[in-house]
Amino acid sequence: MKLRFSAHTLRPRHAFTLSRESIREKQTFFVELHHDGIVGRGEAAPMARFGETPASCRAALERMAEALPQRLGDPETLIRSLEVLAPHAPAARAAVDAAVMDWVGRSTGAPLFRIWGIDPSEMPPTSMTIAIDTPERVRQRAREANGFTVLKLKLGGRRDQAMVSAIREVTDAIIRGDTNEGYPDRETALREIEWLAERNVELVEQPLPADRVEDMIWLRQRSPLPLIADEAFMHARDMDNVTEAYHGINIKLVKCGGTLAAREAIAAARARGLEVMLGCTLESSLGIAAAAHLAPLADYADLDGNLLIADDPFDGHPVIDGRIVLRDAPGLGIP
Ligand code: MG
């Protein structure tokens, strides 16, 4: 087995501003697993917020490439062994996890959803993200997203109410709010969430900084909308911190370390009665595909990272009427 990877720079289609930062470009890595004449692929899109930089991601990919065994053997055993080699590089591990599973699917001719016993017809609609911008530009983005039934609006600043009102001038589509830890305190958060609840907003992601567990427990008891942990939830080991403080979790492969860890996180969330969102970062259609095969298990899909970039090098699964339609093709299903 040989692991090869290359770096690639993705650029957002429009200015991509969140409550904490403005993203002008995103470094990602495309990984190939060569074995027995079949190539499996995956993507690593590291997120600095979780301590993984392009440099540390690259170093982790190099370590895993060097330590790869000759034969693939049991895929789960191989994927679990990555945790020891790259404990602080979940995006790098997610890329290798996806490449291994893509290889397994291609070698058996089966799409991943079938290997996992998942019914693709249960795919929830995916949201289309609108970043923080002027009310005029936000309204324009909402118009452009007219094929989508759900919009995800980045919030957490002084323009929140103006942006929501601007969108409501052109569409009644469901809005999900994502404040990326942006509200300053729990009282402000509650006031804002109560205002949003009257405007067909479905849920709010990460209203307060991830470490404010006590404030989140207070807020969860009062919030009229479901609250979803994103920055507060990386992997199944964080479950104790979120169970009382949120109604659900946003699982991303680049946070938890890949499809195997994501399936474990989904099971752990269900065991505790938590809702599940399957999310992403700015990434190409290759990375999105790995999460999309799991999305029928989720209550909410937020898998639009590939639609937000200007230069997607892959031909992703199509989005029809706001839902990802998984191709019945081997592995990840990306040609
Ligand atoms: Mg989020």
Short description:
The protein is of the alpha/beta class. Helix content is 35%, strand content 20%.
Mean pLDDT: 96
Number of helices: 12
Shape: globular
Low-confidence runs of at least 5 consecutive residues? none
Termini, distance in Å? 21 Å
Instruction: Tally the beta strands.
Output: 15
Which structural class best describes the helix and strand composition? Answer: alpha/beta
Fraction of helical residues: 25-40%
What topology, given as strand order, has the largest sheet? 6-7-8-9-10-11-12-13
For this structure, the quaternary state is single chain
Bound compounds: magnesium ion
Proportion of strand residues = 15-25%
- What is the alpha-carbon Rg in Å? 19 Å
Q: Please outline the major beta sheet.
A: 8 strands, parallel
Helix and strand run: EEEEEHHHHEHEHEHEHEHEHHEHEEE
Q: How would you describe the overall organization of this protein?
A:
The longest helix is centred in the N-terminal third of the chain and has 19 residues. The protein has an eight-stranded parallel sheet with strand order 6-7-8-9-10-11-12-13. The chain is 35% helix and 20% strand. With 335 residues, it is an alpha/beta fold. It has twelve helices and 15 strands. Bound molecules: magnesium ion. Magnesium ion binds next to loops. The site of magnesium ion has 6 residues, from loops.
Features:
335 residues, alpha/beta, eight-stranded parallel beta sheet, globular
